[in-house]
Amino acid sequence: MSYVEETDCVTFLVRHAWLSMRSAVAVALAEHELSVPQYGTLLMLSHQPGRTIAEIARKVGTARQSANELITGLERAGLIERQPNPNDKRSQLVYLTEGGKARLAAAGPAVRAVEAELEADLTAADRAAARAWLQRMVDPEVTIDEP
Q1: What DSSP state is assigned to residue 120?
Q2: Which value, in Å, is the radius of gyration of the alpha carbons in the chain?
Q3: Which residues pair with 80 in a beta bridge?
Q4: CA distance 74 to 33
Q5: pLDDT at 68 exceeding the cut of 50
Q6: Which residues contact 4 (CB under 8 A, 6 or more apart)?
């Protein structure tokens, strides 16, 4: 009997899956001098440029202070830049630099390789179902096209 069947709680299975996946991805990202949170932040900013630190904190699920420290590290590495927010003088907007775009592009294949290895024993239908379920958990309004 699996742990999930014993406890009837998928939440813990998802958490354990994330922790296992995060460890594997962290090894691949270390070669690109990125942590998992840094990679996630760069990925988010590539799709949603010009976010405030508060928005980044909410999106990555951390405190604003932690997000600020993360952004400061990425800024020191030349991967992001802050610009004044024309709508709110108290906040700044965060954008990828060319260096950030290049680092993200270089690290992406390593992350996808880890994901492919972790998904290797799954059928295409199982992968699609898992991705669709995860996407619905993140955003119920988004649908994923079938391959």
Answers
A1: T
A2: 17
A3: 96
A4: 11
A5: yes
A6: 10, 12, 13
Of the candidates 47, 60, 39, the one whose C-alpha atom is nearest the C-alpha of residue 104 is 39
The token pair at 120 is 């290797």
Residue-level pLDDT at 31: 95
Strand, helix or coil for residue 134: helix
Tell me what the mean pLDDT of segment 118-137 comes to.
90
Contact by Cβ (8 Å): 107, 66: no
CB 132 within 8 A of CB 144: yes
CA gap 104, 99 in Å, rounded: 9
Residue 51 has pLDDT above 90, yes or no: yes
Q: Is the Cβ–Cβ distance between 71 and 41 less than 8 Å?
A: yes
Give the model confidence (pLDDT) of 40-49 as tens digits: 999 999 999 9
What are the CA-CA distances from residue 84 to residues 19, 48, 51, 87 (Å)?
36, 17, 11, 9
> For the purposes of burial, counting CB atoms within 10 Å of the CB of 88, is it exposed (0-12), middle (13-18) or buried (19 or more)?
exposed
